[in-house]
Amino acid sequence: MAAQPTTNAALTPSNSTEPEPPTPSDAAILAHLQDYFATRSVASPIYAFLLGTPSEPQVRLTSASRGVFTARLTLAAHHLNSGGGLHGSVSATIVDWAGGLAIATWDLRAGTGVSVEIHVEYLSSAKLGDEVEIEGRADRVGGSLAFTGVKIWKLDAEGKRDKLVIVGRHAKYVKAR
């Protein structure tokens, strides 16, 4: 005997679930990042020294959408090592900073957790006066951990990505959001 189709309402999916919140516009995400950076740069002397403050900006946030942002920085003497190239510790600090900002793009959160692991690959270099583009990407933001990727490119004279300087990965504990 063939089974009869069921019409029991308890077996059908419910439409009573809350709708997904609207995804913020790219402009709203960029405004959130600008505010987030302005408050964090004042609170962090190392970020203020390397990336600037609202009154003396060095880094410029150029675009943002959910899970990704870009920024540009012209390298000054305090970004360089004794050989005249982008200092490794500056690169690692940028990976730390950019990983946090990438997480902030995910859902406009005000806190982005604490570092669990940072890995930096040094592929090439940039020197005094070079402009670099920083891309931060939130690869996964979960309930306890977030994983991000950061790339730093040297830009050519036309402002286009020329060579990849740094590739970084950053994991953060985000549970206490």
TrEMBL record:
Biased composition (Polar residues): 1-11
One Pfam family from the record: 4HBT
Region (Disordered) location: 1-26
All copies of domain Thioesterase, residue ranges: 84-156
Similarity comment: family membership: Belongs to the thioesterase PaaI family.
Protein name (database record): Thioesterase domain-containing protein
Species lineage: Eukaryota, Fungi, Dikarya, Ascomycota, Pezizomycotina
